[in-house]
Description:
By secondary structure, the protein is mostly helical. The chain has 7 helices and no strands. The protein has helices at 3-15, 24-34, 40-51, 60-95, 102-130, 134-149, 154-170. Helix 3 packs across helix 5.
Amino acid sequence: MGLWELYVVLLESTATSFGGLASLPLLHDALVTNAHVLSDQQLNEAIVINRSTPGPVGFYVVSIGYFVAGLPGALVGWLAIVTPALAIIPAAHFAGRWIDHPRVKSTLQAVVIASAGLLAATSIPLGRSALTDAVAIVIAVVALAVLLFTRVGSLWIIAAAAVASTAASAAGLISVI
Length: 177
């Protein structure tokens, strides 16, 4: 996959996702399922890298670009992230007067609902590739429960999961590949 094609794929996903992990389904479909230039494991790693470092959630696109094409791919990923952000400024100026219109609100709500559905559909294959043993499943269930029922920040949940996984590996409960 060339850099221009990678840019177009990443731009399409960032321009239509409205931030965060909403671009994940499009990227999975384009780069893992169709082009075969990225693996599920690399996609998971890109998300983990992004979630364990400071910055916006959507910056995992830079890691994806890196996994696909090295440093030039990372630069392409960054350009794909900033292009919609810069293009939306003039668009928001002109569209701002219609933001309270019921049809515009309904359209935005539909986009949010569709994005949530796409995220759910993509999370299943990613979960299957990441949940490979009992320890990983227990960590995922506990992390989900803590996330849903407490106000513990995601950074602390990720740190605790890393400690639990390291301890399980040191105890010989899991093998690290």
